[in-house]
Amino acid sequence: VISQDRNILPIHNPKLTRLPRSFYLRPTIQVAKNLLGKYFIRKFRGATLVGKIVETEAYCGAIDPASHAYRGKTKRNEVMFGNGGFLYVYFTYGMHFCANVVTGPEGIGEAVLIRAVEPVRGIETMMKNRFRVSSPKFRVVSDLTNGPAKFCQAFAIGRKQNGTDLLGDEIYIADGETIPAGKIGRSSRIGITNGKERNWRFFVKGNRWVSRK
DNA sequence: TGGACGATCCCCT
DNA sequence: GGGGATCGTCCAT
Q: Separation of CA A156 and C1' C10 in angstroms?
């Protein structure tokens, strides 16, 4: 028994058409909103993992003290300064990875943090990636991908995936539904101190996989 | 070369 | 709701 609530997962039939490069070259906050409802797709050991993006945060480079790119280009954040449509992965707290979608043209250090997705396909593989085989604790599907580091663990995203082109085959984002403005929630970003007054976190209202209310 | 801290998670109370 | 885990990154010496 993996979970008692797996039967609450809605039925999905996403068409897996890649978003074009131009999607990522628009203003970062616009991209952060528009990524909600899109499908994040990861090929991993023969499996196709799919998650619908339900929570994002915009990090706006030079004007945003919370952004890794605020103080300019370094070895760690150089992917942020590249062209839009690439994946920026960083390691934090000594044990976690977080994944961002780079936005804007080359030279602009902006990105959107993927904070949560709703599992759509490959849930068994996500379970294996997230939890130890003999985990003493009872695990539920709703705990799989409701946070930026949980998402990375479930989707097997780590250092090696930093700089991956999102128009390639290993990892890409596909068109999905457009979330109407009335269903998009907005708040301050989580876990930061500088720049926390900006409401640059976006989420699908009422979605079970959003990390916090 | 060292030290402070972080876009977090999990377990315990 | 709070604290510990755990280490790469960055900046100040």
A: 27
Q: What is the pLDDT of residues A78-111, one digit of tens each?
A: 999 999 999 999 999 999 999 999 999 999 999 9
Residue A171 phi/psi, 5-degree rounding, is -140, 130
Positions in chain B where some atom is under 7 Å from a protein CB: 6-11
User: How confident is the model over A40-73, as pLDDT tens digits?
Assistant: 999 999 999 999 999 999 999 999 999 999 999 9
A29 Rama class: left (phi>0) / alpha (psi -120 to 50) / beta:
alpha
Check residue A7 and give its pLDDT: 42
pTM tops 0.90: yes
Asked whether the beta carbons of A88 and A23 are under 8 A apart, the reply is no
| Amino acid letter, residue A156 | A
Residue A162 half-sphere exposure, CB side, CA atoms within 13 Å?
Answer: 15
Say how far A154 CA is from C3 C1', in Å. Answer: 25
Express each pLDDT in A185-198 by its tens digit.
999 999 998 888 99
Whether A75 CB is under 7 Å from strand C: yes
